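ENTRY TYPE: paired fold submission
RECORD: A
CONTENT: sequence, then structure tokens
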Amino acid sequence: MNRTDEIEIVAIDGAFGAEIRGVELARPLDDATFAKIERAFAEHLLLCFPDQHLSEAQQVAFSRRFGELQVHVLQEYRHPQFPEIYVISNVDPATDRPIGRHPDPGTLVWHSDLSFQRRTASATILYGRETPMQGADTQYADMAAAYAALPDNLRRKVEGRRALHDLDYSRSRAGAARMTEDQRRAAPPVLHPMVRRHKVTGRESLYISHHISAIEGLPAAESRDLLAELMEHATRPRFVLSHRWRQHDLVMWDNRPTMHRATAFDTGAERRVMHRTVVLDSI
């Protein structure tokens, strides 16, 4: 059993996020220990748990402590025994060798997980089972800080507006495989406010994503230009944290006030196997 007094929370200097030391997530978490992790998550938005050794069942069990888990509409990425796990792997299970292409190009662009659903995501929990020696960092943008620093002219353009989030459109733009008709019916485009208030912290944040296909009430060209300007602002270095993966890191982040993207790596020489679980936001 983990002990609450052994947990150390170390904030990341100059950025949001914290590293959690002294906890083994494969072992049972009592209520006091879990409450401490929950408080740290609410405060820091992103938590890194280094050197974790989890089975699939243990990752699902830990993730489920935070709420209901998503089963992704893209069934080709689902783990065969644990459908709550979205597998991002460039390793061919038949040959046990890298396939030489990125398994999910949609992860390489700035986005917020599940913004394409009516019920969006609160936490994403990503476990690095195998991580490359070089590349494949994950970058995170603090959208609350970006919104607080938004120039007045841009703030006026987004307040009260909604944007249309569309997974199939997003995958097409990223060069990923298009969705099937059944998948499109299961995940139709959905409108979300461009500014959201966090249910726990009360802070407002910009809510944009590569999944956005249009801004309600704006012509297509104006919509594209505004989104590009907002993306450029929100992903400036002062708002971005970059995580260099180590083998067996587990990182969880709050999708409501953040965006993220993966960076490229040598998909023909390096192995990268990531298991992702996503906690649905409360209704």
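RECORD: B
CONTENT: sequence, then structure tokens
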Amino acid sequence: MEIVIETKRLILRKFTLEDAPFFIELVNTPAWLQFIGDRNVHTVEEAENYLRNGNLKSYVEHGFGFYLVAIKESNEAIGMCGLVKRDSLEDIDIGFAFMPNSIGKGYGYEAASATLDYALNILKLGRIVAIVDPQNASSIALIKKIGLKYEKMVQISTNDIELMLFGN
């Protein structure tokens, strides 16, 4: 288990293939499906492939990715938060997603602010952006709370809705 970021209550660690069952659960929550989209990940094999071609590949290619967020005390996985380099965006993007029972407890802010600090002060990435569905009020509030400011609307793929882009 490779811990990348530690906060008062949380650990953010690299995903492993053993996290596939949790990943299936997370990407099929109502909020994920509504605001991020259906990734068609329903089996352990599909989840392992998604992790292998996404997060695990990003760790090697970029030195960062999305990290599993767990409660330090119990080691319970509650979500993910991290950094992604998208082909469709010039800058590195911060993102997060949490299980429904973990929302509203400050974990999102704790994980996202620590991730932003890690990006800027450890990885020395000069500019971080966030993209968000305009209907996703709670994510917009969190993005603003960590200090990112609204810049413009963007479309990251041809069949996608326009998303709000925030930057530091």
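NOTES ON RECORD B: Helices lie at 20-27, 30-35, 44-53, 55-62, 107-122, 137-145. The first strand starts at residue 3 and ends at 6.
STATUS: closed
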